[in-house]
Design the sequence.
């Protein structure tokens, strides 16, 4: 027997299977991390890519808006505190800095509303505001080439200097987070977000794809319209340790970060599995079923059609937002839901649509803390109390010779079949 451990909320669960049935464990490439993350970030800030540097764009008395991608309090605090060292040394006072926490529509609001963003010391020093995409008074900044009107948080227009901050990691729709994605959806109006992410119904809008991705094209235009002055991006491994930092102009720093991220997260696979066990990657990605479900596209890339997929996600905060639940209960056919979303699009609806497509192509079972009677009402999804129970149930389906692949970090892993 062999034991495979999968992230599950803030802990891990073990799956025991016969050694002969293990096909592979598919996870991001193990790569050396920086021994001193703060020094790495400081070095990136002092040696930016492109023609822009912190000392050139900020002056004493300038009003600074930092747009922060919420990536956990430790990472957030590391990034902001190191950036503040450089801003302070350039003569910027704490009271002239506003941190706007970027909105992320792929995290259920119910599971994140009260979570702290920065440590106590930074929270006391800086003005911190969570962006509300439904707030009144957002500023029109222009129209994209597809004709979508872009409205952003008015703090950007009021700022003398605008800086985006956050990690570059695989994103289920825009290809990679960070860079332009911090602007839209991060500080955009709800209508602008919905019009752009409506393009997420296109199959070209997928994880790890930025070229010819219509959603990425739109958010890149939005970021250009916003005239972001500077960006600070980091690339992390699957354990969220900093590998490298990139700072400078949005296009160049983000582009270099994506190239490194692809080296880490894109994983070649030689053979399709008879069964997949996939975890989104722990508490940052599995607070609700709505958040966890977006990792399932990775399983479809490498499982045989119609074969079992087990999603191992704690879902400590339940199924997700009200709209996700209502749509999940209302529709059972992806074609019907697609027609509905063309008339009344929403991000929870898009997630439900993608989950429904997974169920059409694979035999899905979920291991979570959500009560069985509740999950079974959602698209008639099957449940198991433990990961080992799920394996025993699914092994009966694929037979004693069935080969199993595991994806411990499904939200971050971009598997592809070798040709």
Sequence:
């Amino acid at each position: 027997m062999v034991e495979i451990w999968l992230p599950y909320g803030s802990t891990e669960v073990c799956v025991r299977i016969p050694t002969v049935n293990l096909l592979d464990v598919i996870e991001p490439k193990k790569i050396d991390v920086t021994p001193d993350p703060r020094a790495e970030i400081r070095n990136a800030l002092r040696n930016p890519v492109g023609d822009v540097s912190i000392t050139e764009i900020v002056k004493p008395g300038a009003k600074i808006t930092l747009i922060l991608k919420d990536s956990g309090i430790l990472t957030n605090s590391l990034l902001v505190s190191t950036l503040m060292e450089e801003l302070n040394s350039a003569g910027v006072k704490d009271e002239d800095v506003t941190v706007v926490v970027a909105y992320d529509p792929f995290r259920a609001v119910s599971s994140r509303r009260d979570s702290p963003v920065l440590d106590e010391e930074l929270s006391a020093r800086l003005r911190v505001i969570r962006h509300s995409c439904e707030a009144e008074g957002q500023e029109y900044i222009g129209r994209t080439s597809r004709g979508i009107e872009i409205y952003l948080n008015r703090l950007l227009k009021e700022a003398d200097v605008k800086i985006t901050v956050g990690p570059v990691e695989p994103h289920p729709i825009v290809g990679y987070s960070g860079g332009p994605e911090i602007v839209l959806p991060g500080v955009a109006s709800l209508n602008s977000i919905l019009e752009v992410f409506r393009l997420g119904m296109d199959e070209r809008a997928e994880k790890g794809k930025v070229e010819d991705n219509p959603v990425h094209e739109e958010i890149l235009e939005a970021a250009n319209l916003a005239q972001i002055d500077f960006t600070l991006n980091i690339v992390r491994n699957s354990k969220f340790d900093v590998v490298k930092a990139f700072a400078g102009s949005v296009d160049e720093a983000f582009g270099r970060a994506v190239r490194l991220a692809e080296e880490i997260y894109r994983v070649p696979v030689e053979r399709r599995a008879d069964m997949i066990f996939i975890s989104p990657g722990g508490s940052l990605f599995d607070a609700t079923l709505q958040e966890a479900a977006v990792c399932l596209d990775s399983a479809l890339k490498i499982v045989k059609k119609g074969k079992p997929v087990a999603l191992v996600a704690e879902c400590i905060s339940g199924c997700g937002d009200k709209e996700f639940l209502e749509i999940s209960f209302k529709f059972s056919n992806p074609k019907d839901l697609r027609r509905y979303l063309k008339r009344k699009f929403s991000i929870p609806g898009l997630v439900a649509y993608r989950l429904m497509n997974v169920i059409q192509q694979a035999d899905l079972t979920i291991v979570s803390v959500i009560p069985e009677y509740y999950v079974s009402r959602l698209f008639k999804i099957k449940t198991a109390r433990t990961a080992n129970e799920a394996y025993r149930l699914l092994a009966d389906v694929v037979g004693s010779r069935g080969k199993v692949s595991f994806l411990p970090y499904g939200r971050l892993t971009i598997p592809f079949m070798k040709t």
